């Protein structure tokens, strides 16, 4: 897969050029360059830093792991940090792919510490909307942000499906509580991670559309607005899913409490029924004379009393739904 591209006059002109060609290409006023640095070497960074005049703190931010999503504006360029996400359908766990981008008037430089970000999806997005390539870096940056936000949206939708399955498990006739708790915890962790990467993207998109710079031209503004709308929907959906997971957890605890109360009620009812024959036999087991002592009819009286009292308690408890 190509890790760099050169657009000239709104058309793809060249791919797979070495990093050392960057100074020569940027001298062409009609050229727009995308360069991807995955695990960059010091030599690669030196060429890019020298040519674009990057501030040392911005380079540190681009190479730092777990930076929050943000847009930082310098004198001659922008630094964008963002995360694409993928959801494991089986476990419900979310993984993130961090990416930083230096945005100049005629170059987009993406920096990654690993290869988890799907660059093939990015190049496909550019190829699908190649008629917008005349907008230069604004076109390239839009494709990047669109891929990132689409990954957020796909993850939210998949999590929504998982949560619906979790709701079905809560009201199952024989719920598997340990499995349900494990899945609910995984969902909660995934939503916390997703919230951390989705919510700041609202500020990134809002700043790109609000600030007066040459990256986003009038032609690309509606497309950025569309990405911003997707960010808002994803963030609102994420917040609602967090509330749903918390609600499911509360319902699960309430149902567990209700089931426990029902079990205790039934156990208590049967204990009361069993207590009747115990009381009768205990009475007739006294070592003192009583009515029916040493008589056959005394045995039958005690037996009939146990049966009648137990049956009466059973009917009473059954009518009141205690057993």
From TrEMBL:
Subcellular location: Cell membrane
Primary location recorded for the protein, binned into one broad class: membrane
Membrane topology: Multi-pass membrane protein
Originating species: Saccharothrix texasensis
CC terms in the record's Gene Ontology section: plasma membrane
A Pfam family per the record: CorA
The protein's name: Magnesium transporter
One term of GO molecular function: cobalt ion binding
Top-level taxonomic group: Bacteria
Record's keyword terms, sorted: Cell membrane, Membrane, Transmembrane, Transmembrane helix, Transport
TM regions (residue ranges): 267-285, 297-317
Similarity field: Belongs to the CorA metal ion transporter (MIT) (TC 1.A.35) family.
